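Look over this entry.
=====
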Amino acid sequence: MSDGHHGALLDDLARRRGVIMLVGGPDTGKSTLARDLLAAVVAAGKTAAYIDADIDQTTVGPPTCVGLKYVRDQRDLSHLGQADELHFVGAIAPDSVILQQVVATTALVDAARGAADLVVVDTTGSISGVGGQTLKYHKMELCRPDVVIGLQRGAELEPLVGMFRRFFSVDVETAEVDPEVRLVDPEVRRAHRAKAFAAAFAEPLQRWRVRDTVFAPTLPAGLDLARLHGVLVGLQDGSGACLGLGVLEHEAGVLRVVTNQGDGMRGLRLGSLRLDLNTLDVHRVRLGEVMFGL
């Protein structure tokens, strides 16, 4: 039997197969519940796949990406940060990249569904408003989870849960947040994000000269490439997968990408952030303004 506040829930979920999606606001313990569930699945002699779609406070892979980690034994539990597959989203604010998040999460769920006994999908804390509900609706629509577990304080999830039950034939269960879970200070979040970016840009870094024809979206003719300095990019391998992150650097008229994952890259996907590699701080950018002055 599992211990802790959600012990009975964990015991029940660990016996299941299929796809389980975890939803809840910020700091409701979704990632902790996911890790506990992965451990319970492994202890039961089964395999799990962990899809981390929290693109800001990531567990699997770097921020701005949805990551997939296969968990087959205890050793994998100790290395959750090392993704087996990545999909680049290019932002940390979920409401600004709804399409990219839905596509990335769905692609990884489809990849994992037949490769593990249980697929655990951890989502962002965006649960309200038009953006949050639209994001969750389309994830439900395309990922087709077998079970949704909602962690909530009070009745904060009821509008979302009501929508799920009205539009989807899925088992939706809610549980109270563990009273030991505390709200996280924004500065702690920033530090966690910076640490994850530091891991993604660990030495040795290389600088690869890039042509202006390798980007998605494509660059407009005549663009001053200096406008791309500092923009975060996802390194693509030519088969739809992301190899890792890079930062564009423009110096003396030459555009380069700074990365430690350059081998095998075929193209670069432009993100909606600038990343300072010295401070590891990020600033949101609008690609339309960068490329067209809109």
